[in-house]
């Protein structure tokens, strides 16, 4: 059954309510590599309950459901879908514990053409249950590799250009060998990130790091270099996933600053491949 874009955009999803604790905040930070140096007090502030800080990328795991669409008759072949892009807009840093409500919708469906796939543009609005205040808006692009050719072909959304000059800053962060196993305790329990047999069946020599785990590592680098570990200064962050990372590899985040806008990309040092490209961050 081909994709019906009007049906997809009209889907009404139930709200997701999620309560989280300081433990969840610290576990997420550990899952993206903070605390690697337990004597670094700047990192310790995100993994220790004394005056605990919340990472600005923490909202990506709030209300997150990687299998949200699988209970609906949409025509999408989920076995051939890939998380293509992530866009995080921070409205207010979440508290170190609380309850949120996430409202999901499909903003648009783009046909790339027969044999070229389709894009689902999804949105998750996260609010504080008690106050109703907006916390963050998450926009994800899901690439449906086998589902193109259902209607009028339109161009993909424009990507943020990376400057041609040399990076203004570079930050290398080593990922832990068990990072994917830690990160999946916060979100994304896909066995591709844990089970060697599933990874092999998918064409990988071993389990890969979650894309949002890589996103969080790059976010840590940006927080360190551009925000001096002040999470309130990172207002938005986006990027396109372009290659997998294997836990244990080094992620080099290359950064270019132009006023309040930071361009970035994340490179796997050992294999010299770009894992996150066309990255854009707004700071204050």
UniProtKB/TrEMBL annotation:
Pfam families: MaoC_dehydratas, MFE-2_hydrat-2_N
Signal peptide range: none
Any one GO biological process: fatty acid beta-oxidation
SUPFAM superfamilies named among the record's database cross-references: Thioesterase/thiol ester dehydrase-isomerase
Residue intervals of the Peroxisomal multifunctional enzyme type 2-like N-terminal domain: 19-145
Origin: domain of life: Bacteria
InterPro entries in UniProt: HotDog_dom_sf (IPR029069), MaoC-like_dom (IPR002539), MFE-2_N (IPR054357)
A molecular function GO annotation: enoyl-CoA hydratase activity
MaoC-like domain sequence ranges: 163-275
Listed name of the protein: 3-alpha,7-alpha, 12-alpha-trihydroxy-5-beta-cholest-24-enoyl-CoA hydratase
């Amino acid at each position: 059954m081909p994709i019906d874009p009007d049906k997809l955009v009209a889907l009404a999803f139930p709200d997701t309510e999620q309560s989280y604790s300081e433990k969840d905040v610290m576990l997420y930070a550990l899952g993206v590599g903070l605390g690697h140096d337990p004597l670094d007090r700047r990192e310790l502030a995100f993994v220790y309950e004394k005056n605990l800080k919340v990472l600005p990328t923490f909202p990506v795991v709030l209300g997150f459901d990687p299998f949200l669409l699988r209970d609906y008759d949409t025509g999408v072949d989920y076995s051939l879908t890939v998380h293509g892009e992530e866009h995080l807009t921070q409205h207010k840093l979440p508290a170190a514990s609380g309850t949120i409500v996430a409202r999901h919708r499909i903003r648009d469906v783009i046909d790339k053409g027969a044999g070229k796939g389709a894009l689902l543009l999804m949105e998750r609005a996260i609010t504080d249950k008690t106050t109703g205040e907006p916390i963050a808006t998450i926009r994800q692009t899901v690439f449906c590799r086998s589902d193109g050719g259902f209607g009028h072909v339109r161009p993909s959304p424009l990507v943020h250009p990376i400057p041609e000059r040399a990076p203004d800053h570079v930050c290398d962060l080593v990922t832990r060998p068990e990072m994917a196993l830690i990160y999946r305790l916060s979100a994304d329990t896909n066995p591709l990130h844990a089970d060697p047999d599933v990874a092999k069946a998918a064409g990988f020599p071993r389990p890969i790091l979650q894309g949002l785990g890589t996103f969080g590592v790059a976010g840590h680098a940006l927080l360190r270099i551009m925000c001096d570990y002040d999470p309130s200064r990172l207002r938005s962050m986006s990027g396109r996933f372009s290659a997998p990372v294997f836990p244990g590899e080094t992620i080099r985040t290359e950064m270019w600053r132009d006023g309040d806008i930071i361009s970035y990309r994340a490179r796997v040092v050992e294999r010299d491949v770009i894992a996150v490209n066309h990255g854009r961050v707004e700071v204050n």
